[in-house]
Specification:
101 residues; mainly alpha; 5 helices
């Protein structure tokens, strides 16, 4: 099974379990930030977590400019996990606009 097939399978498994909720996502981000700040979660692990999230989001994203879409998702995840910048709306992401400054 190739990487994209594994990602699609994981995508459907996660949807079937109901882990699409915003509360779950917020909890994950908060947990990662807390673990990083406590020195338990290293930046390399956080990078792998953000990459996995970006891969999942891009599976369901637009087919046109898929790589660009994934890069923008990944940049927004960096901002979200850093907690330093306003990320912008999901609608802006789906229509290709840039996040608000």
């Amino acid at each position: 099974m190739n990487s994209i097939d594994k990602q699609k399978r994981l995508h459907f498994d996660v949807v079937n379990v109901g882990l699409r909720a915003q509360a779950t996502a917020v909890g994950l981000v908060r947990l990662c930030v807390e673990l990083r700040d406590a020195g338990v979660l290293h930046e390399t692990a956080l990078t792998r977590i953000k990459d996995a999230i970006a891969d999942e989001v891009s599976v369901a994203g637009p087919r046109r400019n898929a790589q660009e879409y994934r890069l923008e998702v990944r940049e927004r995840l960096d901002q979200l996990f850093a907690g330093e910048k306003k990320v912008g709306s999901a609608e802006a992401l789906s229509f290709g606009d840039k996040p608000e400054p």
